[in-house]
């Protein structure tokens, strides 16, 4: 599933070998084609998504968190219980996927929207650590 790779790269954009602007565009195209109803559900749009993805840190905003929870749910990044899907991560994050999954699979938050942000921050941090 190319989508998970695009999401991972777009959200974490840490590889110096990748064109971040292209990754963002590809991710936004994927949201447009596969999770478009999340825009309406969370009163968002592509321009807002683009601006938020380019920030150095994820916004600590409930609407932002839940928008991405919606998108990643539509894209099957999480299973029905809210757990990170190991097979997807391993399939699309070639290098060190086992380490990233092991470090981030047990992130726990009481709210699904907060859990997304916790997992996203964990993956982002682990990729930074492993890319040094």
From TrEMBL:
Signal sequence bounds: 1-17
GO molecular function annotations of the record: odorant binding
Coiled-coil residue windows: none
CDD domains referenced in this protein's UniProt entry, alphabetically: PBP_GOBP (cd23992)
The UniProt record lists the keyword Cell wall biogenesis/degradation: no
SMART domains: PhBP (SM00708)
UniProt keyword list: Signal
Pfam families: PBP_GOBP (PF01395)
UniProt protein name: Uncharacterized protein
Organism this protein belongs to: Aquatica leii
């Amino acid at each position: 599933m190319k989508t998970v790779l695009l999401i991972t790269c777009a959200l974490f954009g840490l590889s110096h070998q990748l064109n971040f602007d292209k990754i963002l565009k590809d991710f936004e195209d994927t949201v447009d084609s596969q999770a478009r109803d999340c825009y309406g559900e969370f009163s968002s749009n592509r321009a807002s998504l683009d601006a938020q993805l380019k920030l150095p840190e994820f916004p600590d905003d409930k609407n932002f968190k839940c928008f991405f929870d919606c998108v990643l749910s539509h894209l099957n990044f999480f299973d029905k219980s809210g757990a990170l899907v190991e097979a997807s991560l391993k399939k699309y994050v070639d290098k060190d996927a086992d380490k990233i999954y092991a470090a981030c699979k047990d992130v726990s938050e009481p709210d699904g929207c907060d859990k997304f942000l916790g997992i996203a921050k964990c993956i982002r941090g682990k990729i930074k650590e492993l890319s040094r």
